[in-house]
């Protein structure tokens, strides 16, 4: 989920503070991938920032066997998974990702967070990466930086959900289980591509963007992008319940826009690349290659992935060990952002992790 959507989720929900400072237990590092080759053919050294929690466990052959990778959404970073609605529900004793037993890996994906991205200096000369590049960088980060050659689970939200499907098809069996939350397996087309392209064009058509060579981040187009994201992350039933009058709705809108502006808009060039990186996504033709257990969860009030799009239940049947769950819309669901509120799905995740896999 995009950083602006995360800010909105915090503004709307105002969750209680985390009971545990999970971030204090984390280890941070940068993994440099030498001579990383992009799908465009360009080659450069790439930095992937990664956060880890817990301790790697090694089997009799000295292989790490308790690693779980959690993948963020467009515009996000690994830091979003310290929020209490995720971390407090999953990392504690007896919970699905109990840190006493689990080595949790939270990368900032290519183009995001502390990893290599256009705003580092290359601006629009940065290689035009796509999801295949991002997943390839994740794999090299795991193997070269952390010594991980097998994952117990990939859990991905939004863009990370799509990355999980790319993983399942590109590197079958590397992850023993997949938990893709809040995405679809059809091509990025129709309304999904259109709203992303609207965001890109809003930036690139603004005079202050200056071909990507702006002296100051262009606030006007980035405010419009933030408005698009506000609607993409909306929760119709919850918002109608929480803001039932014109006055309350407009007051919420004004406050959320002010909070977003105060936090600072993301870099415009980074945002263009982040939205455009999904352009080649289309796992539908090769779903049968995914033969590990899959827990695929969407929410019925998701603007980006409406339940009628592509018939996910039928698509799930093409993966022999997949289970599709649709979370019904309600006054307490979070639209697209339901993916990060673990209380909606952590029991299903626990069942997935208990499911036997090949070789175990």
Structure overview:
The structure is a single chain. By secondary structure, the protein is of the alpha/beta class. It has a single domain (3-190, 276-354), classed as Rossmann fold, CATH 3.40.50.1820. It is 34% helix and 15% strand. It has helices at 3-13, 84-90, 131-146, 159-170, 190-204, 219-232, 236-242, 246-263, 268-276, 312-316, 346-354, and strands at residues 27-37, 43-53, 67-71, 103-107, 153-157, 178-181, 294-299, 322-327. An eight-stranded mixed beta sheet has the order 1-2-4-3-5-6-7-8, sandwiched between helices. Helix 5 packs antiparallel against helix 9 (268-276). The protein is globular and about 60 Å long.
What would you report as the Rg, rounded to the nearest angstrom? 20 Å
CATH names the topology as: Rossmann fold
Strand content: 5-15%
The SSE string, one letter per element, is HEEEHEHEHEHHHHHEHEH
Helix segment tally: 11
In the residues, how many domains can be counted? 1
CATH homology superfamily name: Alpha/Beta hydrolase fold, catalytic domain
Q: Which structural class should the secondary elements be placed in?
A: alpha/beta
Please state the overall shape, judged from the principal axes of the Cα atoms: globular
Reported for the largest beta sheet, the result is:
8 strands, mixed
Biggest sheet, spatial arrangement of strands? 1-2-4-3-5-6-7-8
Q: What is the CATH C-level name?
A: Alpha Beta
Mean pLDDT: 94
Strands, helices and their partners?
Elements lengths: L2 H11 L13 E11 L5 E11 L13 E5 L12 H7 L12 E5 L23 H16 L6 E5 L1 H12 L7 E4 L8 H15 L14 H14 L3 H7 L3 H18 L4 H9 L17 E6 L12 H5 L5 E6 L18 H9 L6
Parallel strand pairs: 3-4, 3-5, 5-6, 6-7, 7-8
Antiparallel strand pairs: 1-2, 2-4
Helix pairs in contact: 1-8, 3-4, 5-6, 5-9
């Amino acid at each position: 989920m995009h950083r602006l959507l995360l800010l909105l989720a915090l503004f709307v929900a105002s969750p209680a503070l985390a009971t545990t400072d999970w971030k204090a237990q984390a280890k941070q590092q940068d993994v440099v991938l030498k001579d990383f080759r992009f799908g465009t053919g360009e080659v450069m050294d790439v930095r992937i920032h990664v956060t880890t929690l817990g301790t790697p466990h090694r089997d009799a052959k000295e292989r790490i066997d308790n690693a779980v990778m959690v993948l963020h959404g467009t515009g996000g970073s690994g830091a979003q998974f310290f929020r209490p609605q995720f971390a407090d529900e999953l990392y504690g004793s007896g919970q699905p990702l109990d840190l006493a037993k689990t080595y949790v890996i939270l990368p900032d994906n290519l183009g995001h967070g502390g990893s290599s991205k256009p705003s580092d200096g290359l601006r629009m000369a940065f290689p035009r990466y796509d999801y295949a590049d991002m997943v390839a960088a994740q794999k090299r980060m795991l193997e070269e930086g952390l010594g991980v050659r097998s994952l117990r689970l990939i859990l991905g939200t939004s863009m990370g959900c799509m990355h999980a499907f790319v993983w399942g098809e590109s590197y079958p069996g590397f992850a023993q289980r997949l938990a893709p939350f809040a995405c679809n397996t059809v091509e990025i087309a129709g309304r999904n591509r259109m709203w992303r392209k609207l965001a890109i064009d809003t930036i690139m058509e603004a005079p202050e963007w200056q071909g990507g060579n702006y002296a100051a981040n262009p606030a006007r187009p980035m405010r419009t992008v933030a408005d698009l994201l506000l609607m993409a992350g909306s929760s119709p039933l919850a918002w109608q319940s929480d803001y039932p009058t014109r006055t309350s709705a407009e007051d919420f809108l004004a406050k959320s826009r002010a909070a977003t502006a105060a936090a600072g808009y993301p870099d415009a060039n980074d945002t263009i690349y982040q939205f455009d990186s999904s352009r080649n996504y289309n796992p539908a033709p090769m779903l049968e290659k995914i033969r590990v257990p899959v827990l695929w969860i969407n929410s019925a009030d998701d603007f980006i992935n409406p339940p009628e799009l592509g018939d996910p239940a039928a698509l799930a049947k093409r993966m022999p060990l997949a289970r599709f769950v649709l979370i019904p819309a309600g006054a307490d669901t979070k639209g697209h952002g339901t993916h990060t509120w673990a209380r909606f799905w952590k029991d299903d995740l626990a069942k997935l992790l208990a499911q036997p896999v090949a070789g175990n």
